[in-house]
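Record 1 of the preview.
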Amino acid sequence: MDAAVRHIDLVVSSLEASLDFYRGLLFPLGWSDGDRIVGERGEPVYYLAAPPAEGAIGLGLRERQSSDARPYDRYSIGLHHIAFHVASRAVVDERAGWLKAQGAEIESVPIEHDYRPGYYAVFFYDPDGLKLELVHRPTLSVASEEALAEGAGYVLRDAAVADAAAIAPLLEELGYPATSDQVEERLGRLEMTPNERLLIATGSDGVLGLASMRIEWPIEHDAPACRLTALVVASSARRRGVGGTLVRTIEQLAQRVGCSQIVLSSRRTRADAHAFYERLGYEATSFGFKKRLDAA
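->
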């Protein structure tokens, strides 16, 4: 990974107390002792190593060399807080219990936050008052569906801006013609929208199909819902299971962030699409209405 953060070093008031705290917090999560080096002022620096994973970083601890005893202020220039990702909500809960038993200051107990779908975290402070976070956010991986699809000669992945020229013909087949430049601009917006995702199926003959999803929080339900906003398979790639694989993957991703249902719209004239969805277990429940608005 290019330009990745390799480690973060903290200056602490007591190396012994901070090592005890961070080892107790992180070792049950798979962390371990790493390198020990000498700092630029001759001070010992201890590193804790994260479990091997793409994007994992290490944590360095060294004792302060200044007699300045001002309390840490995360709203002064410098570090605001550090977030550690964990494997599940159960781990967040278990570590929160450990923190409580240690007498650590907990800012907020484990709850789901609205930063991203499924974002479940506890916020707390280390012995020097540095704000920390343990968070579980479901990984929206399509790895299992990729493995399923590879046997059929295609794989699924997230769409990128570079796919704009290949996606434009699919949108035209769906009945929404657009230029490559228009699609490129839309993909750029999509990348900046955390609750939306666009998957494409690709094979040796190019992009075979796409499916887009949006996570919504309807006022009439407690749980989030997933809206399947678009689904299309190239006419040359039909009868290969592409559409079904895309829909099953959307369902898998929706379940991982706690969605209770998937909703979609389909034109009244698309009898073939209606039959397809019914075969996958969907049922017709309502009429849809649309009104075009004049430009302001």
